[in-house]
Write a structure and sequence with these properties.
Elements: E1 2-3, E2 9-11, E3 14-15, E4 20-21, E5 25-28, E6 41-45, E7 52-57, E8 64-69, E9 80-81, E10 92-99, E11 106-114, E12 117-125, E13 134-139, E14 151-155, E15 162-169, E16 183-192, E17 195-196, E18 200-206, E19 208-209, E20 212-213, E21 216-222, E22 231-237, E23 243-248, E24 253-255
Antiparallel strand pairs: 1-2, 2-5, 3-4, 6-7, 7-8, 8-9, 10-11, 11-12, 12-13, 14-15, 15-16, 16-17, 16-18, 19-20, 21-22, 22-23, 23-24
């Protein structure tokens, strides 16, 4: 899927049997919302069925929409509105989908901007419906904007468990859009047995300078070997500019 110059969301697929690309499909003729840039859409396949899921926003409102497509079809189903969006949700951004390699589960992670802050949220797609929306922490805005992805999620191989990590704003006396504390906590939460556990802190990183937010970035990757339970995490604060890394071994973090 790709955003066209007109602002429309276009999808097309590659058929390995015929070694050719399918016809273009216009998923969203209302245009991709400027408010949810960057990462205003994402697409992923279910690991078992091969069915596809796409999520996206529109220029006509603050809601998130989605479509599905069966593996044996070449056309998307009708558009539906994601139940967890709209209402008090404004300016959703950084829409990301992460598929479980052992099931049809897909973890949906995104941020929404409310009253000058960016709040991290998640919901699980189980192959047919969405689970409840979970609110996590407040992340860092730079002059009211989100310029880098300061969260990530990874599954523990084929175990059906996963880890979410993010830079959580420490506002102090100011706001998370700038003017607050210069430090942010690297927070995480584990997805176990179909629910989130208790949020905890990995480390502290500098994401501001004299109250001016400079942001940061978080990247995670799964180790696909026999143990299927290690996840690598790398993160950087926009102010200290030092790359940090750590490994999750299903029980805790070991600083590298």
């Amino acid at each position: 899927a790709t955003g066209a110059g007109s602002g429309d969301l276009i999808s097309f697929g590659y058929d390995r049997d015929t070694t050719s690309w399918t016809a273009l499909t216009d998923l969203n003729t209302d245009g991709i919302s400027d408010a949810i840039d960057p990462q205003s859409f994402d697409v992923e396949f279910e690991s078992v069925t091969g069915d596809a899921l796409v999520v996206y926003g529109k220029d006509t409102g603050d809601s998130i929409y989605y479509r599905t497509m069966s593996a044996d079809e070449d056309d998307w189903n009708d558009e539906s509105e994601f139940d967890g969006s709209g209402g008090d949700t404004t300016d959703p951004n950084w829409l990301r989908l992460y598929r479980d390699p052992a099931s049809d589960d897909i973890m949906f992670v995104w941020e929404q901007s409310i009253a000058g802050g960016a709040f991290l949220q998640t919901s699980l797609w189980d192959g047919s419906s969405w689970g409840a929306v979970t609110d996590h922490g407040e992340t860092v805005l730079i002059d009211g904007l989100k310029v880098s992805q300061d969260f990530d999620f990874a599954w523990e191989g084929n175990r059906g468990e996963g880890v979410l990590a993010w830079l959580e704003c420490d506002a102090g006396a100011g706001s998370c859009g700038g003017g607050g504390d210069d430090d942010s906590n690297v927070e995480y939460n584990t997805w176990t047995s179909g629910s989130w556990d208790t949020q905890d802190t990995i480390a502290t990183v500098q994401t501001g300078n004299n109250g001016k937010a400079t942001g940061g970035q978080v990247v995670m990757a799964t180790q696909y070997e026999t143990t299927h339970n290690k996840i690598g995490l790398a993160y950087i604060g926009g102010q200290d500019k030092r790359l940090h890394s750590t490994i999750w071994d299903d029980n805790g973090w070991s600083i590298v």
